[in-house]
User: What shape does this take?
Amino acid sequence: MAYSDKVLDHYNNPRNVGSMDKKAKQVGTGVVGAPECGDVMKLQIEVEGDTIVDAKFKTFGCGSAIASSSLATEWIKGKSLSEAGQIKNTEIVQELSLPPVKIHCSVLAEDAIKAAIDDFRNKQDS
Amino acid sequence: MKLPIYMDYQATTPVDPRVLEAMLPHFQNDFGNAASRNHEFGWKAEKAVDTAREQIASLIGASAKEIVITSGSTEAINLAIKGVVEMYGEKGKHIITSEPEHKAVLDTCKHLEKQGCEVTYLHPDKEGRVSVQQVQDAMREDTILVTLIWANNEVGSINPIREIGALCHERGVLLFTDATQAVGKIPVDVEADNIDLLCLSAHKLYGPKGVGCLYVRRRKPRVRLVAQQDGGGHERGMRSGTLNVPGIVGMGAACALCEQELSEEAERTSKLRDLLEDKITGELDYVTLNGSREHRLPGCLNISFSFVEGESMLMGINDVAVSSGSACTSASLEPSHVLNSMEVGDELAHSSIRFGIGRFTTEEEVNYAANKVIDVVTRLRELSPLYEMVQEGVDLSTVQWQGGH
Assistant: This one.
């Protein structure tokens, strides 16, 4: 299978790899996927006011899954929570030229963003 | 050292230069049809085929008359299984096989099930092997055929074919073995190993693609088959079609070389395989061997690297050609049915890589591949949330995962 240049770039130079303190109140953590399915994404956001000031990820999965989550962290940095929550997997598919068999990777990245935002919001409520 | 490095010898092998040399005259000068009985061109081709048949038979301890040329193992498998079922269908309809067989066997069995055959799929042990006892327990009054892979193509595990063959002969049940990965790599002797039918493929043993054969026992017992391809009655009526003379000559030459060099080559490739494994396990933790340490092919190493996914590994080690059992690398998006049957677990199946070492693999290449794997796995583990969780002391089996696909 041939990979697009953008997938290769994110795979070879993943952006924003790392972890934040998941107990911190300004941090939201989303973990989606399952090891037996071959993909697990962990995406974390650090929020100030309503703005995502930093994002980090770690991904177990194929090159397209790594690229999708790397791209997602790039996109959400600097966005408001509601803007970030509106990112659609189809935008990731288009940006990375993902083939049909890899669409689930982009879905997972979208889910990871939403899960991180939900986690952050739940923390503020509690 | 030339890049990329080929380390996928279970998928196919390059044609040995000595094999190619033997084949070349048969494309142009000696191009005759082996079935032309009335001129020099035909006689020469027939003679070349006869020589090749002797070479093939000699490697597996058969006689030349027991070799039926085919286009490869898949065709030989179809001919053996369907041919036996059609010929002996009145005796019974029951076949015994195993879950980690090649798809050519499994799909042929599935096809026959639709036509009324009953098939028992033996569940292998964790090393991918079946036992004589399992075969014995599965035998019924109406069992006509046992079909088992000799050496598994994904993990290299070797089945106790000789003992199973003895059981089959005692019970009057035919034994067919898919020996595609075994022949030329480990000693094979159809007499001592009690085999009735056996297939092999030239391109797995440094011969050309598109040619293989089926061994069909002629005495004690005499095995008969119903042909699956109608035509001019070539191959004693068992497989019609003009003989692929250059291919057959190549297969013969390849078999002769294997016979001469088998023990030396097995020793060399085993050493390189062990070197690869030792280097990798010396540097990386959470590495699991898939298959049997004791009963396996010399040049096959299948290992799982926990917490990294197979396809992303292949992307990283892109100048070393290997295979993965990961679902992402297969057209079907299903993880390997072989690893699945061995109950390896989906997570480890996703993380499995098969390294195939062969005749032309060098120590320098093995060192390069090992270093590359170590680098890529280390890098991907830094990216892996699973590795991080395990480092933090989390037991992954207790985690509630969500949103998997």
